[in-house]
Amino acid sequence: MRHAPAYEIRNLRKVYDSPEVVANDGISFTVEPGESFGLLGPNGAGKSTLVRQLVGLSTPTSGEINLFGEKVDGRRQAKRIGRTVAYLPQGSLSLGELKVGEAVRYTGMLRGCNEATAIAETQELLDVLTIADLADRPIRKLSGGQKRLTQIAMTLVGRLPVVILDEPTGDIDPALRLTIWELVQNRAGAGAAVILVTHDVAEAEHALDRVAIMDRGKVIAAGTPAELKSELSHRTRLEIVVADGAALDATSLAREIAVDARVRGRRVSAWVVADEAIRILEKAMAMAGPGALEDARLITPTLEDVYMELRDGSLSSEADS
Amino acid sequence: MSAREMRVHRFRVLFAMQMARVRTAWRPYLIVSSAMPLGIAVLLRAVMSRAQADIYGRQIVAGSVVLAIAMTGLVMLAQRVAALRENGALDYYGTLPVGRASVIAAVLSSFAVFSLPGTVIVLVLGSMLFHLSLTAVWAAAPVWFFGSFALAGIGVALGFAAPDEQLAGMYSNLAMMAVLFLGIIPAAKVPGWLGPVRAVLPSTYAVDALKPGFGGTFSGGQVWDLLILACFGVASFWLVSGPLWPSAD
């Protein structure tokens, strides 16, 4: 069974009634053990609806979900999913009466750990997530970020073979985010399949092996971050900031650089053909003259650029043409 | 661990999680579950002659004891379940390898425990107030056990059905009013049209099972009432862990 994909989703469709809303429309993808897979997309793209179906909290209208080769069929499979998949929901943490240490330990025990193992794993996770000193504090007395860290510990305890995290780092400070990504990547390195839902593309770029970009219920692009970025490899982003008080007008400069250059205040941004990027930059610097530019740089496309271009539709129009 | 040992292990953890509520809520549970039933018993005793108290005392104390169970198992549990549903705790349990029946059993068991101190307080002080024999204590044990499960089943169902915690409080207070009036008022004085309502309320059978205990008697009727109470408990348990469990969609 372990040779089967952790998840295999085929043509999944979820439609809510009254009013009719198509939340997921023909979604297909696989996630392998040991892989970290991301679902990217704007709010309302259908990401959370999708993962709720993956963990059995919601029933697909049509399509198929296979977990390690076995079909997931609503309520009847709930216990099997619970033994295999750890899920961090998007919402805030319930169980406010429990203390942090209890919540993590009990979750581990409900997943089948004996008490000694649950205690050891709890201690380890609380140490890594820097909340060991909160172990005896009731959850209802925690800050938003501390609650999120507790939820992450509750998700990771028990070391299940699949981990699904829905927007895990929203309330977490940047330094601790890196720790969480490291923790998640270690789980994938140890053989777990990790599915991450996020709209933080920068994080996704270095934390994920593969991503699917969703919009309006559909997967509009999928691949490794490198594969997706190659969609834009023929282009380079030129960013110029005109110095405050310079005689040069940002709008005139933009017109000289590219027809579709964008101007925001003193900042000019444009996608240019990669082979001509240096020539265009030199032209802009010559036009501006010494001291007129505060900043000028050429940027290789990032996953965020791909995401933004897909969202705005320009990449898909290029593909269509 | 065998499958059976694992079920017991998981139930113990779920029960411990529910009992954590004691840390923050034991005072309100104790006060609410005992103050109102006791207050009603005191009020009725104050307006009754000694002769009336002798006639209606058993009914009033038995009704007040069952009301104490209902205050916790029905009113407070309905609000608690609505809150659990609202804040996503049901989803939390839904993604763990535990059955709904185990979750419901843990919730019902914990609220049965929460209702125990109030039940004992009302039983003892009510009996003293109406000069009843405390031999009823033994009769109260099975009534508490079966009655709290049956009433808590209704509490869970109301918590599932209510759109939010506040409405769950309103629904359960309406149900509690029925328990109060139909439990404390003697059957002969209840208007005929309320008979069917009386017949479908588990509290009726709890009161009827408890009353003879104050005289130190034991009859087949009590066993029958307890059996009906147990049936209510089993039926409500099945309903709330199955068909009435709220859909995530």
List keywords for this structure.
heterodimer, A: alpha/beta, 6-stranded mixed β-sheet, 4-stranded antiparallel β-sheet, globular, B: 249 residues, mainly alpha
Report on this model:
The complex is a heterodimer of chains A (321) and B (249). Chain A has 321 residues and is α/β, with parallel strands linked by helices. In chain A, 37% of the residues lie in helices and 27% in strands. Chain A contains 12 helices and 14 strands. In chain A, a hairpin with a 2-residue loop joins strand 12 and strand 13 (267-273). In chain A, helix 3 packs across helix 4 (115-128) and helix 3 runs parallel beside helix 5. In chain A, 43% of the residues are buried. Chain B is mostly helical. Chain B is 80% helix and 0% strand. Chain B has 10 helices and no strands. Chain B has helices at 3-19, 21-46, 50-86, 89-94, 100-129, 136-161, 165-184, 195-200, 202-210, 220-241. Chain B is globular. The model of chain B has no long low-confidence stretch (mean pLDDT 89). Classes of the chains: A alpha/beta (321), B mainly alpha (249). Chains A and B meet through helix 2, strand 6 and helix 3 of A and helix 1, helix 2 and helix 4 of B.
Strand content of chain A: 25-35%
Q: Report the count of strand segments of chain B.
A: 0
Extract low-pLDDT stretches of chain A: none
Give start-end ranges of low-pLDDT stretches of chain B. Answer: none
Radius of gyration of chain A: 23 Å
Q: What value does the average pLDDT of chain A take?
A: 87
Number of helices of chain B: 10
Number of strands of chain A: 14
The fraction of residues assigned to DSSP E strands of chain B is under 5%
Radius of gyration of chain B: 18 Å
Class by helix and strand content of chain A? Answer: alpha/beta
List the quaternary state of the chains.
heterodimer
Helix content of chain B: over 70%
Distance between the termini of chain A: 43 Å
Q: Gap between N and C termini of chain B, in Å?
A: 35 Å
Task: Name the largest protein-protein interface in this structure.
Answer: A-B, 34 and 27 residues
